[in-house]
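Notes from the 1:1 (GR / supervisor)

We went over the backlog. Supervisor wanted to see one worked example end to end before approving the batch request, so GR pasted a single chain during the call. The sequence is below; no edits were made to it. Supervisor asked that the structure be written out right there so they could see what the output format looks like.
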Amino acid sequence: MDTIKVLITSAGSAPAIGVIKALRQQKEIKIRIIAVDMDRLSAGFYLADDFYLVPSSQESNFISEIIKICKKEKVSFLIPIIDEELPFFAKEQKLLESVGLRVLVNNLEVIERGNDKYATYLFCREHNILAPETYLFSPRSKYSGISLPIIVKPRWGRGSQFLYKLKDLNQLDYLSLPNREFVVQEFISGREYTVDILAQPDGTILQAIPRERIVVKAGMMYKGRTEKNKGLIEYAKRIAQKFGINGPCNIQFIEKGDKFYLIEVNPKFAAGLPLTVNAGINIPFLLIKMHLGMRVSSQELEFKDNFYMLRYWEEIYFSNYKKVEH
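Structure output shown during the call:
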């Protein structure tokens, strides 16, 4: 098989680094990695085979610049990484496919529902999935019946930015929030899990890999372990199927007592992806294999139980600043 060329966006982000490392780890197919980012000091540039600076996804020429690079490099696969980019690639999927690109992205409807925390809550209610009570934020609302404490967080957004935990509803009157929509959510205390989902392009869910988030900083797992919890695996697979997942995805839960509360459905790769990959299931590579029509063996769907990951900082050094210019 000829070398497969893959373009990965937002190359400096933690999920992108995880995807690059995952594709490097496999030896079955020769893959050339092209990294793009709007930051000229992106760490992912130094892990890729080549790199390009691109405009922000909010700029009108973002997609056209991506297509120009893909044509020049003869790219076969495009892997979008962060929330802000996903809708653009989903909307332009037919255009991208017309120039020979396979895009590892979910359908636009799935992305919009997953990125919207209130829409995700309404989906849970419709399908009888246990989730924290969630309301659209309004300073004048009393949120009668909601249990304390509560969480206030952006309706759309990622990570832990602008997230507040309040012990008293009266504190809502004193919040200084940016000019954007927020939700008020019942606080659920318990063990945190992220479940990575492996889905076929037709939406068939092949596997779900639970990871306990033992230590989390700024929304990212720093210490974690895999857990072969059969009940959670089957539960996550059913949810992913109902949600319409047919691309990268991770689902976040909190275990309280003997129940799992769905917190978020993220239609993208997670920052904790390396734990799943090194436990045995290389999701980015398997997605590429499936799009190429190659068979995924049962062995490739097995993962190690109680397999730990501890993270630490790792540096990249260079002395020639011009190296990052392309």
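Supervisor's comment: DSSP finds nine helices and 15 strands in the chain.
Batch request approved.
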